[in-house]
């Protein structure tokens, strides 16, 4: 990143006075061993979300069907989980990342292209399961980092998060459970028998196999 003194002052002012996240200022975030493009309108990937990829790695290393199957990342944001999972799947394994936000879809697609994973990862636009109607009963696995913060708690978040990051990626409804319940209901339709589902509700990670 190159900028003259006036530009640097403007950027620093955004950071100090507006509490704009540093990742939005520089346009990227380091996540696992990746450097992912991010911008306002896209949730900044968190270090704790890396644990979902580690969990998937443990699962697919013991199950060839899951390793070679089709996975989905719902609410993909920057595409972090889709890319993280896509890189550990075997030959034939693919990931579909979906997001309601056109901005997130564009950023995720850029990140996928940046790591030359277009043949392995497809990004679709739409809300949760809507872009995946063709995958009912076919998914080997499903991952997500959904919004789970109760609506009334959003205003109490640090300014970098509550003021600048997309509310749709944070707000989980009155009790924080809206998206979680929706995901649990829909996952059963998309997963094939033996399929694996994992999502983050920090500090917890919830996962199960479909019987």
Detail the topology: elements first, then pairings.
Blueprint: H1 5-16, H2 22-26, E1 28-31, E2 34-37, H3 50-60, H4 64-67, E3 70-74, H5 80-86, E4 94-99, H6 102-114, E5 121-125, E6 139-144, H7 159-162, H8 178-190, E7 191-201, E8 204-209
Parallel strand pairs: 3-4, 3-6, 4-5, 6-7
Antiparallel strand pairs: 1-2, 7-8
GO molecular function: nucleic acid binding; protein methyltransferase activity
Keywords: Methyltransferase, S-adenosyl-L-methionine, Transferase
GO biological process, one term: methylation
For the secondary structure, the number of strands is 8
Tell me which CATH architecture applies here. 3-Layer(aba) Sandwich
Average predicted confidence as pLDDT: 92
Overall form: globular
Could you name the ranges where pLDDT drops below 50 across 5 or more consecutive residues?
none
Count structural domains.
Answer: 1
The major pleated sheet works out as: 6 strands, mixed
- Counting H and I runs of at least 4 residues, what is the number of helices? 8
Structure description:
It comes from Trifolium subterraneum (Subterranean clover). Pfam families: PrmA. One of its GO terms (molecular function) is protein methyltransferase activity. This is Methyltransferase small domain-containing protein. Keywords: Methyltransferase, S-adenosyl-L-methionine, Transferase. By secondary structure, this protein is α/β, with parallel strands linked by helices. It has a single domain (41-209), classed as Vaccinia Virus protein VP39 (Rossmann fold), CATH 3.40.50.150. The chain is 33% helix and 22% strand. It contains eight helices and eight strands. It has helices at 5-16, 22-26, 50-60, 64-67, 80-86, 102-114, 159-162, 178-190, and strands spanning 28-31, 34-37, 70-74, 94-99, 121-125, 139-144, 191-201, 204-209. The strands form two sheets. It has a six-stranded mixed beta sheet with strand order 5-4-3-6-7-8. Strand 3 (70-74), helix 5 and strand 4 (94-99) form a beta-alpha-beta unit. It is globular. The model has no long low-confidence stretch (mean pLDDT 92).
């Amino acid at each position: 990143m190159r900028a003259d003194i006036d530009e640097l002052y403007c950027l620093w002012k955004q950071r100090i006075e507006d509490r704009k996240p540093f990742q939005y200022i520089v346009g990227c975030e380091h996540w696992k061993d990746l450097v992912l493009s991010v911008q306002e309108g896209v949730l900044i990937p968190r270090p704790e979300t890396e644990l979902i990829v580690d969990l998937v790695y443990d699962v697919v290393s013991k199950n060839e069907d899951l390793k070679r199957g089709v996975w989905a990342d719902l609410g993909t944001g920057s595409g972090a989980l889709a890319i993280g999972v896509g890189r550990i799947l075997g030959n034939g394994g693919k990931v579909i990342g979906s997001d309601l936000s056109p901005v997130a879809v564009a950023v995720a697609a850029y990140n996928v292209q940046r790591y030359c994973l277009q043949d392995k990862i497809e990004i679709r636009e739409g809300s949760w399961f809507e872009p995946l109607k063709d995958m009912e009963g076919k998914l080997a696995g499903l991952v997500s980092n959904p919004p789970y913060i109760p609506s009334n708690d959003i205003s109490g978040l640090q300014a970098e998060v509550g003021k600048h990051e997309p509310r749709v990626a944070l707000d989980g409804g009155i009790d924080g459970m809206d998206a979680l319940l929706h995901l649990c209901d829909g996952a059963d339709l998309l997963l094939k028998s033996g399929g694996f589902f994992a999502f983050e509700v920090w500090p917890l990670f919830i996962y199960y196999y479909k019987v």
